[in-house]
Amino acid sequence: MKLKIFLVFYLFSFNILADSMSDQLSAFENVENNIKVEKKLAEEKRLQKIAKEAERKRIKAERVAKRVAKRKKFARDRKIAREKVLDDRKVADKKRNQDYENKIRDLNILERTAKINNSNKMFQESLDDKYRNHDYEDEKRSIELSVAKAKAKRANDFIDIELKKKKSEADVIQSKADGLRNISEGKHLRKGFFD
């Protein structure tokens, strides 16, 4: 706008001063050239301003991109650190649970071993009692058998004595019978009494 006012003012002032038409034309061409140069300079300034603005925006965008990348990296690093902490906790929990299960398994094994040992001890004691009872029973049977043998031997002795007594009685009876037969047959006279 200022440029237009300047040109109009310049042209009027030039018209007054210029005498000839060729001077006026050359002055007009000079003004036009000056206007073109000024327009060109203004356009160059505008383009420089646009370029500066574009450069400023590019730098600003780079800064923003750097900040965004830095924030993303920070967030990623933070997420990785958080995941590592969670993984470490999971590993620690898993190890603690495994240790607990191992201790429970060991306690169960010890308990079962104690029960088995107790059962074996009770079984051994019952076997010992059984063997003791068997030994006692065997000894008792042996004593009873010895007593029965002794009784049988004494009974045999009594039977032998009784048999001998009966035999001697039978012999006495037989000799009396023989004597009586001899007397009745008269054989006692032929031989001597003690022959």
Task: Give descriptors for this structure.
mainly alpha, 195 residues, rod-shaped, 2 helices
Structural notes for this entry:
- Helices cover 93% and strands 0% of the residues.
- The protein has one domain (2-171).
- By secondary structure, it is mostly helical.
- The protein contains two helices and no strands.
Compact summary:
This protein has 195 residues and is mainly α. 93% of the residues lie in helices and 0% in strands.
Q: What is the helix tally?
A: 2
Mean pLDDT: 81
How large is the share of residues in beta strands? under 5%
From the spread of the alpha carbons, the general shape counts as rod-shaped
Largest sheet: none
Distance between the termini: 204 Å
Helix content: over 70%
Rg measurement, Å: 76 Å
What is the total tally of β strands? 0
Number of domains: 1
- In the predicted model, the low-confidence regions spanning at least 5 consecutive residues are none
One letter per element, helices H and strands E, the order comes to HH
Explain the layout of strands and helices:
Blueprint: H1 2-17, H2 21-185
